[in-house]
Amino acid sequence: MRVAIVGAGTLAKLLSEELPAAGHEVVILSRSHKDFFDGKPGVVEQRTTDYSSVPQLTEQLKDCDAAVCTIADFSPAF
Fold first, then answer.
1. Is the Cβ–Cβ distance between 41 and 61 less than 8 Å?
2. Half-sphere exposure of residue 34: CA atoms within 13 angstroms, side-chain side
3. Number of Cα atoms under 13 Å in the Cβ half of residue 52
């Protein structure tokens, strides 16, 4: 299964290790390239995206079987 991890923080780093160990391919979606994921076994691709653009997210996720959103909002409203 190809799983997209949306976000690239602490939880995404953990999932990028656990999902490949369970036999899944991982695609990272984040606002910018993250060196941490380069060459990581099971991480097949990093994609830069705008989280607020539904059309862009739809395009970025079209070849994925599942998505896990790890985005956190630390603004005062949250």
1. no
2. 23
3. 0
Give the mean pLDDT of 9-26: 96
- Residue 72's pLDDT is 84
- Number of structural domains (the chain) is 1
Question: Which pTM does this prediction carry?
Answer: 0.89
pLDDT of residue 73: 78
Question: CB within 8 A of 68, min separation 6: which ones?
Answer: 3, 4, 5, 6, 15
pLDDT value, residue 78:
56
Contact between 20 and 26 under an 8 Å Cβ cutoff? The reply is: yes
CATH number at residue 14: 3.40.50.720
In a domain, 74, yes or no: no
Beta strands in the chain (DSSP E): 2-6, 25-30, 43-48, 66-69
